[in-house]
Amino acid sequence: MKIDKVIIPVAGWGTRSLPATKNIPKEMLPVYNKPVVQYVVEEAIQSGIRSVVFITNRDKNVIEDHFDYNLQLEATLERNGKNEMLGKVREVAEMAHIISIRQKRALGLGHAVACAKDVCGNDDAFAVMVGDDLMFGMTPGIQQLMDVARSERKPVIGVMEVPQDEVSRYGIISGEETSPGIYKINRLVEKPRIHEAPSRLAIVGRYVLTPDIFDCLEKIQPGHGGEIQLTDGLQVLAEKSGMLAVKIRGTRFDAGNWAEYLTANIYFALQDEELHTDLVQRLKAYLH
């Protein structure tokens, strides 16, 4: 199963992160020394994907610009002998083949994925990664899904177990565990009431899908707010082709949640040996 493209929807308004996102896309908010979206792209690249399809809008050009050359900045760094930083800046521009598609109307995640139909074609599977979900582990999150999709030749979605009182914030799956951490999906429920959730396995923004999903998305009816829900399309695809869920191993940060976003900044800053000791001491002063 060939998987060489990833769709990353970035057209949302980022209202959970206001007022910080009034004029800056939420995907460009920094986590330590890189914007959120760069971590997502790096996860895809580490998994062998080389083409990144951003589903964007007219106000998100800065995301594309981040993955392009900045000749004026590069010339300044080179002139000042800052070769290490110059290398890092150029590395970002060269890490992936970037394709940009505008979602001209904000009609939901399902609609955003459907916008990539012509680019993805009718033959090959592709990944979908939500642009504000950060995942870190020994094996990249999306690669864990790709490995199962290739071996089982089925669409796969990523899940993680969440506390019972948080199930209403997620799409939740009902399924049978066929091998450790792998589930055959029977049903997907979008943001169920706490007492109606079929499990605590929440869909967490990583998918490997087949082109059949585009037909499924065309068939479903818009839901609340006129939006096309990806979860509804996944349910149709699961009934048509079968679908698996993989319990992703690793650490996840939701960059749209302030507590998790700030925790992610601390998490990565603590990995920097030059900052670690000073940061720990400063944090201790505020934890009394």
Overview of this protein structure:
This protein is of the alpha/beta class and 288 residues long. The protein is 37% helix and 25% strand. The protein contains eleven helices and 13 strands. It has helices at 36-46, 61-66, 71-79, 83-94, 109-114, 117-120, 141-152, 212-219, 230-241, 258-269, 273-286; strands spanning 3-9, 30-31, 34-35, 51-56, 97-102, 125-129, 133-136, 156-161, 171-179, 182-190, 201-209, 244-247, 251-254. A nine-stranded mixed β-sheet has the order 5-4-1-6-11-8-12-10-9. β9 (171-179) and β10 (182-190) form a beta hairpin. α8 (212-219) crosses α9. The longest helix has 14 residues, at 273-286. It is globular and about 60 Å long. The relative contact order is 0.16. The mean pLDDT is 92.
